[in-house]
Write a structure and sequence with these properties.
By secondary structure, the chain is an alpha/beta fold. It is 33% helix and 23% strand. It has one domain (2-20, 27-343): Rossmann fold, CATH 3.40.50. It has eleven helices and eleven strands. It has an eleven-stranded mixed sheet with strand order 1-2-11-10-9-8-6-7-5-4-3, with helices on both faces. Helix 7 crosses helix 9 (273-279) and helix 9 (273-279) packs parallel to helix 10 (298-310).
Length: 344
């Protein structure tokens, strides 16, 4: 197997072309279950971009039906500022706005104080913890990196929305939060709700006069990495994605929990390389620490690389494995900022 391998501090990156002349590499045990994306319904190879675009529609429709996607809220979000402070040359606002009709969503909105030109923006999605929206927005210090806060310091407008699992949570479990959601939307998966709310955060950004609507990114770690992955796949307004340790393979992480895809994902008979293919040709950085993602994620990059090649953009898809576990290692933090700065 020929691989381009680049040393990066304590980690390593895989980018560009992966080729093989055989099945000697043990990594191919993962790839065996990933059908080729560039094959049409009759089993014929797809060799043109137009052919892929038609197949892409089929894949997007298949996953949309499985998820039970919610209809978008057609009303522009009206922001209610609950708290505002101005740390380190930033404006940081704790806001609420309408998500689903009749329901509010909380988020932190961060931006530089002195804005002359329209700025790039990012939806920064927090990971699993009651306080991690505060951590990612730099309101409180903890073990979670303040990615959103630091991106704002670098000149981005950043929104850090609260995942629905924590909305008016009280003593409710995650499972109980999903039940409340599915009472309103019985045919929808938990990830459909996460995707809806993430897209509503994009709505907030696109309605801000200081945001360049052609330069919107999405990033997240763990739970947030899953959300960023789906947001990048299903929202054309999002141009750049960083998914950190979300687990790109369905069996790499807890995708079958009810707040994600549920047990039905195991009988769906489709894999996440299809969703990853929907992201093409957007710059997509998958970061792993050999926990939820890492060496085992290589076949998913390989599976979508032919699609990126059709667009002539093979360098837009990359796996970076720092081999330091599930948390955001310093080198992973650095690569996240670089990917956003270089691609937005």
């Amino acid at each position: 197997m020929h691989r381009k391998k680049f040393l990066k501090s304590s980690g390593y990156a895989f980018a560009g072309l992966y080729l093989s002349s055989g099945l000697k590499n043990p990594l191919f045990r993962y790839q065996a279950g990933l059908p080729a994306l560039l094959t049409d319904r009759l089993g014929n190879p797809i060799t043109s971009l137009s052919g892929w675009i038609e197949n892409r529609k089929i894949i997007a429709g298949r996953w949309s039906d499985f998820l039970g996607l919610l209809d978008p809220n057609p009303n522009p979000p009206k922001l209610n500022i609950l708290i505002e402070d101005r740390p380190d040359g930033l404006i940081r606002q704790f806001i609420e706005y309408q998500g689903e009709p009749g329901l509010t969503v909380n988020a932190y909105l961060l931006k530089p104080q002195n804005i002359i030109n329209k700025l790039p923006s990012v939806v920064a999605l927090h990971s699993t913890s009651d306080n991690q929206m505060k951590f990612i927005a730099g309101v409180e210090e903890g073990n979670i990196v303040a990615l959103g806060y630091k991106l704002a310091q670098m000149g981005f407008v950043v929104i850090c929305p609260m995942c629905f699992l924590w909305c008016d949570k009280g003593d409710k479990t995650y499972e109980q939060q999903v039940v409340l959601f599915q009472q309103r939307h019985p045919k929808s998966k938990g990830m459909a709700k996460m995707l809806f709310d993430a897209q509503r955060a994009v709505d907030v950004l696109t309605n801000l006069e200081e945001v360049d609507n052609s330069r919107i990114g999405a990033m997240g770690h763990s739970l947030g990495g899953k959300e960023a992955f789906y947001l990048g796949a299903f929202d054309e307004r999002v141009k750049v994605i960083v998914s950190n340790e979300g687990g790109i393979g369905i069996d790499f992480s807890n995708w079958d929990d009810p707040w994600y895809l549920g047990k039905e994902i195991h009988s769906f008979n489709h894999q996440h390389h299809e969703v990853l293919g929907l992201c093409a040709p957007k710059p997509f950085l998958l970061i792993g620490g050999d926990s939820a993602d890492g060496e085992k994620s290589i076949p998913y990059i390989e599976a979508v690389l032919p699609v990126y090649n059709l667009y002539g953009m093979p360098k837009n898809i990359e796996l970076f494995n720092h081999d330091q576990g599930h948390n955001i290692a310093p080198i992973a933090e650095k690569r996240t900022y670089e990917w956003m700065v270089n691609n937005l």
